[in-house]
Each structure stands twice: as C-alpha cells, then as structure tokens.
Design a protein that fits this description.
The protein has 420 residues and is an alpha/beta fold. The chain has two domains: 145 residues, Alpha-Beta Complex (Aspartate Aminotransferase, domain 1), CATH 3.90.1150.10; 256 residues, Aspartate Aminotransferase, domain 2, CATH 3.40.640.10. The chain contains 13 helices and 16 strands. A hairpin with a 2-residue loop joins strand 13 and strand 14. Helix 4 packs parallel to helix 10, helix 7 packs parallel to helix 8 and helix 11 runs parallel beside helix 13. The longest helix has 18 residues. The radius of gyration is 21 Å and the shape is globular.
C-alpha cells in the first residue's frame, strides 16, 4: 500500500516526487491511532483539531448508524430534513445571541467563502457595491480556497505563491498584545487607520478570534478583539469571526468570541462540529445580514451539492449533545494546566523561542524550522502522533485524553527541538 500511496496519492502540503513520510493506519480508538504494523500512537493533533471526543466513540457511532438506516444524503435544494433543522437549532442556541440564520456547507474553507460572499452581497444590496474588499490582520489562516487564501497572510502564509491570482485585500499588523495583556494604542492604531481610510470600500473585517491557528498559533488579547468589534460598528464594516479552529471549547470557552464578550455579524464553524467524523461546516449570521441579502428578491449565491448532509448533521447533533452533557470545561482546564506545567521547562532550551498555552492548545515555538520528516519519524518511534509545521511544535489533544498520555506527548516535544 505505501508504495502505491507514495506514487499516486497526493497528501496535504507535500510533494509528489519527494513526499513526506506517511504511516498506514489500521484503526483508531479513544486517543490511540493504531498503525498497520501494530504500533500505537497517542494522538496529540485531534486529527487537525476535529476529534475532540477521541476516536470510535460509541455515541457518535450510534448516531451515524441510525441515520444510515434512514438516508445518507438528500439534496437540500427544495427539501429539508430533521438532522439539519435540529442542528441549526442547537447552533443558534449555543452561539452568541443574535446569530440566528444558518447556512450549511461541506468544509471550513467553504464556510469562509460563504461568509465573504454574504458580506459582499449584503453591501451590493444596500446599493454600495464598492464595499467589496476585506480587512484582516497578518498571521491569519482561513483556508485553502481562493477567497479564503486572499485573507490569509500574504507574505509568510502558505499561499504566497498565489499572490498575483487572488484578490488583493487590506492587512493590518498582527496584534503583539498577548492573551493576558491589554491592547495598547499602538496595537489598535494601524487597524483603525485602515478602517478610517478605506471603510468606504471594506465589506467586512475577518479574523480568528483570540487564537490565530495554522498561521502561527498566536494567542492575542481579547481586549484587541473587543476594540476591533467596536471599530467595525463605528466605521460600518461587518465583522466575520472565523471560529473553525476555536469553536466548541478548544480555547477554554465554547467559542473564542466569548473571551471578549463580542457578537460578530457572521461566524464560521467547522472542524470539531462533527467530532471529527465527517466534513461539515456552517456559516451563521444575524438578521441584519440576512435581511440585507434577501432584500429586493436577493438570493445568496451559493449551494453545495452536499449542503446539510443528513449523515453529517446527525453526527454533529450527537457530538454537540455529548459535549454539552459532559465536563468539557473541566477537561480543557485540566489539559491547559498540565500543558503549562509540562511545556514551560522547554523554554530554557537553546532552540526554543517561546512557549504559550491557551485552553487545550500548547505551542513550543523554535528558533528554526522543523524538519518535519525527521521529527515525524522520531515521534512515531516514541509512540506519539505530533505534526509540527514551520517553527512550531504544538499539541491539540482530544479533550478525553488522560494525564499520563498527555505527559508522554509533552515529553516527546523535545524530540523535535534539534530537527532542522
């Protein structure tokens, strides 16, 4: 299998002629990934931050099997079904008050595309078609499709080679104020200046609230987010919160916007929405945007084939119920405390530039880029699954991880410190 895989199967962010190593998975259970050769790995990634309940969970399995007995899929154009309606109710009930319209799609990147379309169509229907650019901050990551790429970091992001092919957006400096600090006037001034100068052409400001994910794992001040939300109202610009990575408890709050007590006009959700079982995303918005798009017989110009997929929605409902019935807050708080205690000693290592922790996210930033292939082999040999990128070795384990397994992950971080 591995020979065929190397020759013919393209994996994320890798070369087909010089691919990064892959390891064949036979099964998963709890926080364990079992390889075909019999080795077991403790999962430190939650399958790119989605498998918050671990793997092969009986509650989610039952939900999937029960829905399969009814229908795996049916088109959402002209039809509806209970799993989607019930999921919309759950999302409206748990997200910040006022986000009461739900558009389902099939991936996080697409949910961002939908959010950008919503913002542009809103202003077009207000007879303001010139308001069609986006403002964001550097260091962000919002997905791999073209609209999403346009609001990712244009210089240090993964998509810089497409700079001549995507819409040129407006970028403010990444906020330097850390999570536990106040935002200074120097932090706020650049983004306020851009709003003042360009509000007439800005449809929306999009950012990842409090936690910048794949763009650099940077945790910034809720005070900055709170001030930016106020500025958006002042300059009549819509606010889009990309909660794809942070939603459903990862930052210690159910949604990262709650750290700042703000309500965006549009919110993007994905990743943990189905507990890591199936690809599903949602874009929520308020009545202002809903009515603005719908005025004058307007329709939102998007409609994925697998929109509102019943199987994915049924599992998402079960995942949300499992999350809310459990003790996720205590689990995430315990993970945060252990990550702080066990990662902090790495700060004294010569190769380490910074250590930061928030919720169930632990980051060790190095002074050099990590040789991913070398580090990956070391991690697998040590019985853990950690996937570094750039200068970052980070952990985002499932919420159900036990303390001894988490200790094995934090200890294994040291295996990557000299992989350059």
């Amino acid at each position: 299998m591995n020979d065929f895989d190397r020759q013919h199967v393209w994996h994320p962010y890798t070369s087909m002629t010089r691919p990064l190593p892959t390891f064949e998975v036979a099964s998963c259970e709890g926080v364990r990934i079992r390889l075909a050769d019999g080795r077991e790995l403790i999962d430190g990634m939650s399958s790119w931050w989605s498998a918050i309940h671990g793997y092969n969970h009986p509650v989610l399995n039952r939900a999937a099997k029960a829905q399969l007995e009814k229908m795996a899929h049916v088109m959402f154009g002209g039809l509806t079904h209970s799993p989607a309606v019930e999921l919309a109710k759950r999302l409206i009930g748990m997200t910040p008050k006022g986000l009461d319209c739900v558009f389902f799609s099939d991936s996080g990147s697409v949910s961002v595309e939908v959010a950008l379309k919503m913002a542009i169509q809103y202003w077009h229907n207000q007879s303001r078609p010139e308001k069609n650019r986006m403002l964001t901050v550097r260091g962000g990551y919002h997905g791999d499709t073209f609209g999403a790429m346009s609001v990712c970091d244009p210089v240090n992001g993964m998509h810089s080679l497409f700079s001549g092919s995507v819409r040129e957006q407006l970028f403010a400096p990444r906020p330097d104020c850390r999570f536990n600090e106040s935002a200074s006037a120097d932090d706020i001034a650049p983004i306020e200046q851009l709003l003042r100068r360009h509000s007439g052409e800005i449809a929306a400001l999009i950012l990842e609230p409090v936690v910048q994910g794949a763009g650099g794992m940077w945790f910034y001040s809720p005070d900055y987010l709170r001030t930016v939300a106020h500025l958006c109202k002042q300059y009549d610009v819509l606010l889009i919160a990309d909660e794809i990575a942070t939603g459903f408890g990862r930052s210690g709050k159910l949604f990262a916007c709650e750290h700042a007590g703000i309500v965006p006009d549009i919110m993007c959700l994905g990743k943990a929405l189905t507990g890591g079982y199936l690809s599903l995303a949602a874009t929520l918005t308020n009545q202002r945007v809903r009515d603005g798009i719908s005025a004058n017989a307007g329709v939102l110009m998007h409609g994925p084939t697998f929109m509102g997929n019943p199987l994915a929605c049924a599992v998402a409902n079960a995942s949300i119920d499992l999350l809310r019935a459990g003790d996720w807050q205590q689990q995430v708080a315990a993970i945060e405390q252990q990550l702080q205690t066990e990662l902090e000693p790495w700060r004294d290592h010569d190769s380490v530039a910074d250590v930061r922790v928030l919720g169930a996210i632990g980051v060790v930033e190095l002074t050099h880029d990590v040789d991913v292939a070398s580090a990956q082999r070391r991690f697998v040999d040590a019985g853990v699954w950690i996937r570094p990128f750039g200068k970052l070795v980070y952990l985002m384990p499932p919420y159900v991880i036990q303390a001894d397994d988490l200790s094995r992950l934090t200890a294994a971080v040291g295996l990557a410190l000299d992989c350059s």
